[in-house]
Each structure stands twice: as C-alpha cells, then as structure tokens.
Amino acid sequence: DEEERELPNFTEGEEIPLFTSSSGSSRVAVAPGVPTWATLDVKERMTTPPTHLTESELISLMEKHGIGTDASIPTHIENILKRNYSELIPGRKLCPSKLGLVLAQGYHLIDDSLVLPKIRSDIEGECNKIAKGLADKCEVIKKAIDIFEGKFDFFVKNINKMDILFGSSFSQLQDIGTPFTRCGLTRRYLMYINGPPPRLYNKYTETVYPLPAGGVIKQWTGRKCSAPDCNFELCLYSVGAPPRTFPLCPYCFNHPQKEWGKIPGEDEFSNEVPEDSVDREDEAKERKFRRLGGRSLILECPHPDGHPLIEDLTVSPDPDSDGVLILDPHFGPKWRLCSTRDPTIVHLPKEVHKVTILDRTEDVLGCHYMQIEFDAEKSPLEDGKVKYTSCFPTDDLMQNLVRVHRGSERLNASGRGRGGRGGRGG
Question: Which of 397, 355, 392, 356 is nearest to 380 (CA)?
C-alpha cells in the first residue's frame, strides 16, 4: 500500500516519476523502494481575503515599524476607535470603517507619507536618540516642525481633492446611480457618477476612477481591456459632431504607460515621463489631481495610439493629423473609420455587409488588414465576389468607394463629402 511520508530532499534537475493517486490526498506521496515514485494531486480552491488584524497583531506591527512605545501604543489604538476610523469586532479584530478607508485613500492620494509608517518611525527614532544623548532636542523638534509644516501647507492646498472621495463614499445609492462596468482588480461593479467630473466609483475599495469630460460615456456589453494585466471592462466614449466613438478603459485612462505614446489631453511637458521613480510618482499624482478636479477635457480618443485597444482597431495612418484611423467599435451596420486625433470620419460604402480586422499587419505602416464582405447583390467586385482583403492606405478600390466627412470637435457638423483620400494602388 501507498505510504505517506515527508517531502524528500529533492535536488535541482532530479526527475521523479509520477503516478496517479487514488486516495484523493493533496499531499505528495512517495512509494517505498527504488526507484522513487510520487503522486501529485491538484485541487481547485477559491482564494479568500486575509482577515482583519487583531489588536495583538497590530501591536506587533507597530513595534516592528518603531511606532509608539509600550505606554503610547494602547492610546493610539483607543484613538482610532474613538474617532470611528475603525471598530472592534468579535475576535478582538479591528475592522476599518468607511470613514477610515476614505481618509486613508485621501491621504494616500495627496501625501502617502501621512499614512505610511516611515516618517512616524523616523521621529520615534530621533526621540530615542535624544534619550540616549545622541541628538539635540531643539534640532530634532525644529526638523520635525519644518517637515510637518511643509506637509500641512501642501495638504491644505490640495484638500479639495478629498471632496471627490467623500462625495462618492457618502452619497445615497440613488445619487450614485447603477452598476456600470466591472473592476478588473476586484471583479466588483463600478458605479457611474455623472459628476462633474464624471467618474466610476468602487464602493468596496473606496477607489475613484476619473473619466474624460467633453463626450458621452456608455457601456460596452462586457468587453474587457486587452492591455496586459488589466482586465477592466470597457466603456465607449463618443465625442464631436457627428460623434466619433472610441473604446475607453477606466484603469488605463488613469494609468497611461510611457510606451503607449503621447497622453491625450495633456500638454507637451506633462507627456515627458521623468526618469527618477519619485518624480514619476509625483507626476502621476499631479495628473490624477487634475482629473479628480474635472480638468480632463478630452475631445479626441482618450487613449494613446499605442494602447493595445487602439492598435487592435488601427487600419491606417490618418494623413490629416498625427493620429490613426480605427474601425468604429460599434461594428456596423453603418461601417466607418474614425480618426483618433482629428474630427474626421471615413464612411465605408453602404454595400459593405461586414468588416473584420485581421491579425495580419502591413510591414511598413504597421496597420491591420481588413476583410470586407459585401452584399451579394451589390458587390462592386469582379465576377460577383463578396469577400475582399484590403490594406486601406494603399488600396485604390476602397479609396475610391469611401466618403470622407470632416466634422467638429464639439459643435454641429460642418463637413463635406468627397471622394478617395488618394494614395498608391496596391
């Protein structure tokens, strides 16, 4: 019979033959004798969130980070309970309240050192040096006052940024609205708040995702972002007249990556990503401040042209701007291309029944080929063919069939139709 033993001391590169266990054990079992055989069972389990800290666990962490003394630690815990930042639940565990979560989120947003243990620990360390005669009391006090005076001034200047968090967290459900899209981190529904400024709110984590202003935001049938490690459900963002529609990821809009290219709605300076990690963090915070304050007017595609969502829909460079032409994400029945940086719409012929973006890309321009299916009775192709593969910027046939309309970024349309955009035949 199979005997369960302790896990052997394996060596790197050693191969252990496996056989199927019939006992249902989740442990590795090694059969007696030579050669060595083992079983390895895989069981499916659901992850669970960590439990709240108990008083003793919190005290251990405070001691680890050098916060407080044996005399002051109980007072610190008593204060957060009295001020309703946390509550004591069965098992002597400390559960943060909504007020405590919102305050912590706000402090992290404005100055995370106000909630992280480092500064407090440093000051406790300086006090210990005074007690040991290694530091001058007056110098330590002056240094601490200077540090917190600067932090106080900075916090006062930016305290209005807390309004968004408090407004989102303590609004009535009817004021918040209905579930809109799912968060890619928690899989919880984000609530849409019309604003101003428009934003999505995760009531479980007290997180706010500002959205672009200047257009119309709609749901997009549960589609997910294709950016690595994102997985947020997408929205549709329509802007201009006539409206151009673009995919919008709430997370990527607030966390743009350098490799995606120029950030829409930002000036040239703010698109320069600092090399130093601290400067990058400060720049990211400043960008979020601007968006939380409603200063996020976007009259173009809300994502850089290098974002995976935009690249997947790109079929041509836009010769009238520094943007690209993407397939309208409504995907028919009126098929059209939209410029990401210019109020230009390219209407495909009415005879088009279906358009599919292919994985194949053009070697020089990097844009995707399109597979176009025409109505069988109205196909412009020879011999009545209905399927056609097109590289739009070099395709004479499609260039002569499309109608280009130049509209307005936000006023009524005042464009005109014209023929093809020109270009080489291919």
Answer: 397
Rg of the chain over CA atoms, in angstroms? 30
What tokens appear for 271 in the block?
């698109």
CA 245 to chain centre: 20
Helices (H), 341-414: 396-401
- pLDDT score recorded for residue 142: 92
Q: Are 135 and 144 in contact (CB under 8 A)?
A: no
Nearest alpha carbon to residue 408 among 240, 210, 276, 212:
240
Report which secondary-structure segment, H or E, holds 189. Answer: strand 189-193
Sole residue written with tokens 């390219």: 346
> Over 70: is that where the pLDDT of 409 sits?
no
Beta pairing, strands 336-339 & 344-347: antiparallel
Query: CA 73, CA 87: separation in Å to the nearest integer?
Result: 17
Q: Are 96 and 104 in contact (CB under 8 A)?
A: yes
Q: How far is CA 357 from CA 64, 344, 348, in A?
A: 56, 20, 14
Q: pLDDT of 110-133, one tens digit each?
A: 888 888 888 888 888 888 899 999
- Residue 10 Cα to chain centre, angstroms: 41
DSSP state, residue 260: G
For 103, counting Cβ atoms within 10 Å of its Cβ (0-12 exposed, 13-18 middle, 19+ buried), the class is buried
Structure tokens at 403: 């109608």
Average confidence (pLDDT) over 225-253: 92
Structure tokens at 395: 């395709």
Task: Tell me the CA end-to-end span of the chain in Å, nearest whole number.
Answer: 72
> What letter would DSSP give residue 271?
G
The residues that bridge with 408 in the sheet, in sequence order, are 241
